[in-house]
Amino acid sequence: xxxxxxxxxxxxxxxxxxxxxxxxxxxxxxxxxxxxxxxxxxxxxxxxxxxxxxxxxxxxxxxxxxxxxxxxxxxxxxxxxxxxxxxxxxxxxxxxxxxxxxxxxxxxxxxxxxxxxxxxxxxxxxxxxxxxxxxxxxxxxxxxxxxxxxxxxxxxxxxxxxxxxxxxxxxxxxxxxxxxxxxxxxxxxxxxxxxxxxxxxxxxxxxxxxxxxxxxxxxxxxxxxxxxxxxxxx
Length: 234
Fold this sequence. Notes:
Elements: E1 2-6, E2 16-20, H1 25-34, E3 39-42, H2 46-56, E4 59-64, E5 67-68, E6 90-94, H3 98-104, E7 110-114, H4 119-129, E8 133-138, H5 147-163, E9 168-169, H6 171-180, H7 186-191, H8 194-201, H9 205-211, E10 221-226, E11 229-233
Parallel strand pairs: 1-8, 1-9, 2-7, 2-8, 3-6, 4-6
Antiparallel strand pairs: 3-11, 4-5, 10-11
């Protein structure tokens, strides 16, 4: 079994791919599905997201520059929809980086969304689904590696390596695991990331704290349709 890790998309993803956007798309996706959301479509283009959301009569969520887009029902916060009844509902999520990473991984046989909050659960499912390879893809920020995503990817890769000690892990996967295993601790490392600083400036302190809670959720968003990418809880 091969374990690959890409610091930014795109990456070769023929078998199982896991997209990671810790701050905040994949964290938000896991949170929404954990609260009973039936389906979550991830769409990169704003106009396409609006059209799809209207077609399914669902919530339209997303951001640019960290803040909710005009006319959307909400932003990209894992905590924003706590009071909403999401049971059986549909939602569309359109974000700056994570949505593009999902589209870049479209050719993967299986596509999962991973974060720190569901790291062990997504690793277990990936191991169960994989035929010959698992690729963990960091969404990054504007095409550059992002500490928060590499940290989350490292949490997932560490669990994959624990479950499959014989797997052939790439150097990038090993580097990410070293980061996730730092004595500084996951919350402190996450808070030190550049993206976390941006979110603090926007007032999203609580989102950062939530995103750093290792294995707080057991829900794994798993793609069930490809165009657009639609995820259900697994």
